[in-house]
Amino acid sequence: MPPLPGDENSVYPVDRTRCSHYSVAAVIRNPAGQLLLQHRDDKAGVTYPGHWSFFGGFVEQEETPADALRREIQEEISWCADNITHLTTSIFDQYERRNAVAYREYFLLEYDDRTHPRLTQREGQGMAWVGRDQLPDYVLNTVPIDLPVLVSMLNPRIVFLTDRR
């Protein structure tokens, strides 16, 4: 398996001096094809308060993206995710911050409530399983960096580049 982006021998080195945000996100899918989204807190200090996003968070200085994802998922929804697959990478120019670039790694996690423990949300004001039919209700209130991945995962006619080979 090739190294994950951000790992020591990665073909996708991350220049942390240019990144305002280096983060990971979990694209959690259930057997019905729905994706789990977090309704972000609506309070000061939260980027895009009140918006919907994938669960995840920042990569700490000495962490690999995969380790950061496992830590964030445990912290946010009390799940010890074991089988994760790197899905894609998104680079987002934050025009509101001069010379700032957000770099986000997306990982696919398959969740089945028949075989996995119940998810307990610890961060955010809510969570929802979103399917293709519900997508229009979420599009206008989704964190911008997550929107292309959300739309392409729920609409098979839209294709995005992945790192899967």
Write a structural description.
The protein is an alpha+beta fold and 165 residues long. It has one domain: Nucleoside Triphosphate Pyrophosphohydrolase, CATH 3.90.79. Helix content is 16%, strand content 30%. The chain has three helices and seven strands; from the N terminus they run ββββαβββαα. It has helices spanning 65-77, 135-139, 147-154, and strands spanning 19-29, 35-39, 52-53, 55-58, 84-94, 100-110, 126-130. The strands form two sheets. Strands 4-1-6-5 form a four-stranded mixed sheet, with helices on one face. A hairpin with a 5-residue loop joins strand 5 (84-94) and strand 6.
SSE blueprint and pairings:
Blueprint: E1 19-29, E2 35-39, E3 52-53, E4 55-58, H1 65-77, E5 84-94, E6 100-110, E7 126-130, H2 135-139, H3 147-154
Parallel strand pairs: 1-6
Antiparallel strand pairs: 1-4, 2-3, 2-7, 5-6
Summary of the model, kept short:
By secondary structure, the chain is an alpha+beta fold. The protein has a single domain, classed as Nucleoside Triphosphate Pyrophosphohydrolase, CATH 3.90.79.10.
- CATH architectural name: Alpha-Beta Complex
CATH superfamily: Nucleoside Triphosphate Pyrophosphohydrolase
Distance between the termini: 9 Å
What string, H for helix and E for strand, traces the elements in order? EEEEHEEEHH
Number of strands: 7
Instruction: Please give the largest β-sheet.
Output: 4 strands, mixed
CATH class: Alpha Beta
Strand order of the largest sheet: 4-1-6-5
Contiguous runs where pLDDT drops below 50 for at least 5 residues: 1-11
How many domains make up the 3D coordinates? Answer: 1
What is the average of the pLDDT values?
A: 82
CATH topology-level name: Nucleoside Triphosphate Pyrophosphohydrolase
Shape: globular
